[in-house]
Amino acid sequence: xxxxxxxxxxKQLGLKLDMSRGKPAPEQLDLSNALxxxxxxxxxxxGTDARNYGGTIGLPxxxxxxxxLLDVPAAQVVVDSSSSLSLMHDVIVYSLLNxxxxxxxxxxxxVTFLCPVPGYDRHFAIxxxxxxxxxxxxxxxxxxxxxxxxxxVAEDASIxxxxxxxxxxxxGGVVYSERVVERLAAMKTAAPDFRLMWDDAYRxxxxxxxxxxxxxxxAACAKAGNPDRAIVFASSSKVSWAGSGVxxxxxxxxxxxxxxxxxGIRSIGPDKINQLRHVxxxxxLPTLEALMEQxxxxxxxxxxxxxxxxxxxxxxxxxxxxxxxEGGYFIDLVTPDGAAKRTVALAKEAGITLxxxxxxxxxxxxxxxxxxxxxxxxxxxxxxxxxAQGIALSLRLALAA
Length: 401
Ligand code: PMP
Known about the structure:
- This is DNA-binding transcriptional regulator, MocR family, contains an aminotransferase domain.
- GO terms for molecular function: DNA binding; L-aspartate:2-oxoglutarate aminotransferase activity.
- It is built from 13 helices and 13 strands.
- It has an 8-stranded mixed β-sheet with strand order 2-9-8-7-6-3-4-5, with helices on both faces. A 3-stranded antiparallel β-sheet has the order 10-11-13.
- It is of the alpha/beta class.
- The chain has 2 domains: about 130 residues, Aspartate Aminotransferase, domain 1, CATH 3.90.1150.10; about 240 residues, Aspartate Aminotransferase, domain 2 (3-Layer(aba) Sandwich), CATH 3.40.640.
- α7 crosses α8.
- 4'-deoxy-4'-aminopyridoxal-5'-phosphate binds next to α4.
């Protein structure tokens, strides 16, 4: 059968599949149903009544838990909100309006962020809506072309920050090497108030047997004499419940004091009941890792199904490649130049909703129109198999047309 005939046959099935966002599947959320009954008291270890106002910085035991998870001192951790994205957003807004410690508000002059691509669309949306100009820098196998990054930040004082997803990046699955982490920590920046927005969203989200580790950015920055450079973000969104998890931020003591000052204006305190039950439920690093292994058992077959379908239908197609991530939530399908948008449109016609082509780039513009983000987590295994096949057939048709 020709590519067109195969595509038409697939379309006739009349399927409706959504592969657009990296959401945990219901079975993954079920893994943490014990959270509902995990609360044995509303009193925190220091006597705080978790039901009441207060505790901007988070409960001591919640800070201690994230300190263990992130391998940083508890004094350098804030636990707040259910979404790390909201913490990232607020760090940027506080920096724009008030400046980082010891510096003028960013808004007083043009602000640019370096954006490793392909990257996370919601990072880019924060920049776009808050008036921060974005500059693409290509991701490489071990992180970044550091010669390029060092040159840009040394020359351009408008570059105030940079997005980093250091492990199993969204969507490329890139893991930053120790050398890249060291160079990011030590590089000379023309802007003295430069910040690394270190989004450790997939720290525990391994897909393979190997548990890859990334060098400690806060330690590297302190060692290089830039202790305030990095702010680390994490959450339990894809550990427990994506909509009702707990988020954390880790940074230097100066940054923590700065954050606490500003966050205390925005809110009279976070949801400490949720913090307490997460502490009871997640307990410690080994308990969390055992839970992540259960997530892995559910996710791995779905990723394998996509990879097998791509291999079967696209293995021989010149110019087409895809990532084989060792962790995280995504596969990046890379098409020949100019074929991604058309593929996504054809997939849509065949009943498969994908993240819009270009979404993984600032302003939604993939300069070569090549990247399609595949999110295999949410649909069932059967649906994933069908969807991956449909995407592959859509790409083949896009190339044949
Ligand atoms: N960062 C990255 C890189 C992500 O992929 C996601 C979720 N897709 C988030 C942050 C969102 O994290 P949270 O739920 O803690 O806001």
